Amino acid sequence: MSEPAVGPPSSLLDLPPARARDRLHAWATGRGLPAYRAGQVARRLWTAPVASWADATELPAALRAELADVFPLPRLCADVVQRSADGTVKFLWRLSDGEAIESVLIPSGNRRTLCISSQAGCALRCSFCATGRMGFRRNLSAFEIAGQVRETVLRNPSDKPTNVVFMGMGEPLLNWPAVDTALSVLNAPDGFGIGARHITVSTVGILPGLASFAARPEQFRLAISLHAPTSMQRLGIMPIEKKYALDAVLEAARAFRKRVTFEYVMIAGVNDAPADADALARLARRLGALVNILPLHPGGAPDLTPTSPQAIAAFADRLRHQGVEATVRRSRGLDIDAACGQLRVETERRRRHAAPAVGI
Ligand code: SF4
């Protein structure tokens, strides 16, 4: 892989909460401020976030002005917000350099799952994915990743996610240093305090990144984007199979020693035959993995055909008959551009068409 492109400069929001607190503590002590001020300021980063220091009205006005100078709070700008009739909300965030990334908030009963991005674009070019077709733009900073949660909370505190999944744009394990810090922000009590079991990193199986992720002591969840039960079939839809082959990925997932989920997007005539279900069941049983079946979002890959709902149900039943726990995820947000990467692609296309013609 080539060197990752560098994102914007770092701020307090790019640090794990404990390091941000230490930095604030050192700064406050150096200014002769009372020790409790550092804690007061730190909770405004993630726990009770403010859009700007001016809103932290429990602090003296002079201190707020100074904080704005020394520790500016970066923001993600909500460029487009789409609400689906089923309650799904899709955000297109504009970053400081003009890049755009997506998050999707999926409410379901008492759960609110936020699907977040870890890169702008993606280099891996899975054939069923709109993000893959746009190519890689750059890695996100830790703030730009955890900031998707922060902005969602700033917009509406009651939307604070109970669960976070790294299943938006990009391959999280190709941006491990920033994802590593973002995981701390999401999970730490002085970050968002979301339980590790409610945070899932989804990966195609980047082996070095998997080893780093497995080394974290928390019980974060791992999802493997499997999408095909054999190496040959996987190669047809996921070019990364050439570099990190299915067997090696499964071996690394086994070493993870935590509950693993296989993500499996159903594509008609590609991976949805009864023999595919049987091969998938064998792999899942080997790892004790749960299989999460995803209908192909029709907007995500115009050249591929989604498997019918009846065939998806039969496929899931076939897995269950072989002792595999299988869930079929509802395709949410069908009335909005909810396939990963689709909102950015559509927004850019609409803007291009709306732009006045230039030329002679
Ligand atoms: S499915 Fe994930 S890894 Fe594959 S191209 Fe899309 S964003 Fe990248």
Secondary structure blueprint with pairings:
Elements: H1 17-30, H2 36-42, H3 61-70, E1 77-83, E2 89-94, E3 100-108, E4 111-115, E5 119-121, H4 130-134, E6 136-139, H5 142-155, E7 163-166, H6 176-187, E8 199-203, H7 207-214, E9 221-225, H8 231-237, H9 246-255, E10 260-266, H10 274-287, E11 290-295, H11 309-321, E12 326-328, H12 342-354
Parallel strand pairs: 4-7, 7-8, 8-9, 9-10, 10-11, 11-12
Antiparallel strand pairs: 1-2, 2-3, 3-4, 5-6
Helix pairs in contact: 1-2, 5-6, 7-9, 10-11
Describe the structure.
The protein is α/β, with parallel strands linked by helices and 360 residues long. The chain has two domains: 58 residues, DNA polymerase, domain 1 (Orthogonal Bundle), CATH 1.10.150; 275 residues, TIM Barrel, CATH 3.20.20. The chain is built from twelve helices and twelve strands. It has a ten-stranded mixed beta sheet with strand order 1-2-3-4-7-8-9-10-11-12, with helices on both faces. Helix 1 crosses helix 2, helix 7 packs parallel to helix 9 and helix 10 packs across helix 11. The radius of gyration is 21 Å and the shape is globular. The two termini are 42 Å apart.
Task: Provide a compact summary of the structure.
This protein is an alpha/beta fold and 360 residues long.
Gyration radius, rounded: 21 Å
Report the average pLDDT across residues. Answer: 91
CATH architecture of the largest domain: Alpha-Beta Barrel
State the helicity in percent bands. 25-40%
Which class best fits the helix and strand makeup?
Answer: alpha/beta
